[in-house]
Amino acid sequence: MARTRDPARFEARRGEILEAAAGCFIRRGFHQTGMQEICAAAGMSPGALYRYFDSKESIIEAIAEAEQRENATLLADLAESPDPVAGLEAVVEAVLLAYADPDEGRLAVEVLAEAARNPRVAEGFLRNAAELKAGVVAVLEAGQAEGAIDPGLAAAPAAEVLIALLDGLCGRSILDPEHDPHALLPTLRILIRRFLTAPA
Amino acid sequence: MARTRDPARFEARRGEILEAAAGCFIRRGFHQTGMQEICAAAGMSPGALYRYFDSKESIIEAIAEAEQRENATLLADLAESPDPVAGLEAVVEAVLLAYADPDEGRLAVEVLAEAARNPRVAEGFLRNAAELKAGVVAVLEAGQAEGAIDPGLAAAPAAEVLIALLDGLCGRSILDPEHDPHALLPTLRILIRRFLTAPA
């Protein structure tokens, strides 16, 4: 009889390790975290953990893969939205609320800082950023073709500016102890709608 | 005769050390950088360097003080601008172009990651962020009082959204190898103007 893995259990255990590792990265930073610390946080022996991840880099690659899947979901929601402006508002709202937890912002900043120094870490996140930008450009261009978005806007810079806004919002919980995502939503909706639709 | 310091020379030397330290933080990260490495990069002995900074924390505090002075200059320029919308456009333009150098973005992200973990490091940057937000709120409210900015906008969320946009723009050079700040400027001006002025 072959020793087989239960795929669902394997995935669930991987997810638990990722969560434990993310907690370590947030508290101590990527560089200061050792594999042993991740084992302790996940309640596993090094031998057991190495069946799932062979290095900290492979853990951060898995974080990039999770981001990729989240972006793909956001872009699919956008593509399905009958009104591209409302769709973009909903995406910004969803991301802002997900980052209401300062730990999410801390992890994103920690990962970005490591990506800025370590090309192996950067690779996955640069690919995600390029895919996200291409996806938002496509949504803007489709919206322009159907008249919902100002055709005078240059789609690539407009996508980059919207993504920069999202990125910046994700860090606000670190920099502003009074940051309240809900208080920003009406103003963000005004910004997105005015920016993307031509003044009457 | 007392041994006196030439204040201008002292300041210049401090600036050189800060620059050398920033280069180390960008290449290796704040935590992985030792005082000895900063000494080597600045071409100084530890004894000489300790006359200027007694710890890495005091170096990062000096980086926060430099940011505070830059913010004060931006806010003074804004207060002097006869047109608040054009003034905000100019500030966003100046910051975006300063961050065209990816090393500026890398340092900002590295410092933010450290601030997210280390309250002593966070202190100066949180104070700067609060001052910047208060300054932008004051500019928006003054613009609303004189009719240049839509009085229907809530000033505090509008300021926070504009600052988030700026923050996010500062990281784009890390995440997008094709990032071209000049290509974004016309679109950014459209965004700021449409956001801040009521549709006719």
SSE diagram, text form:
The structure is a homodimer of 200-residue chains.
Chain A: H1 7-28, H2 35-42, H3 46-50, H4 56-80, H5 84-98, H6 102-115, H7 119-145, H8 155-175, H9 181-196
Explain this structure to me?
The structure is a homodimer of 200-residue chains. Helix content of chain A is 76%, strand content 0%. Chain A contains 9 helices and no strands. The first copy, chain A, is elongated. Chain A is mainly alpha-helical and 200 residues long. The interface between A and B is large, with 54 and 54 residues.
Give me a quick take on this structure:
Two copies of one chain form a homodimer. Chain A is mainly α and 200 residues long.
Protein traits:
elongated; 0% strand; 200 residues; homodimer; mainly alpha
Computed Rg of chain A: 19 Å
Shape of chain A: elongated
User: What is the number of strand segments of chain A?
Assistant: 0
Q: Which H/E pattern describes the elements of chain A? A: HHHHHHHHH
Oligomer: homodimer
Strand content of chain A: under 5%
Determine the structural class of chain A based on helices, strands and strand pairing.
mainly alpha
How much is the average pLDDT of chain A?
91
Regions with little confidence, pLDDT below 50 for 5+ residues of chain A: none
Biggest interchain interface, per-side counts:
A-B, 54 and 54 residues
Outline the biggest β-sheet of chain A: none
Helix residue percentage of chain A: over 70%
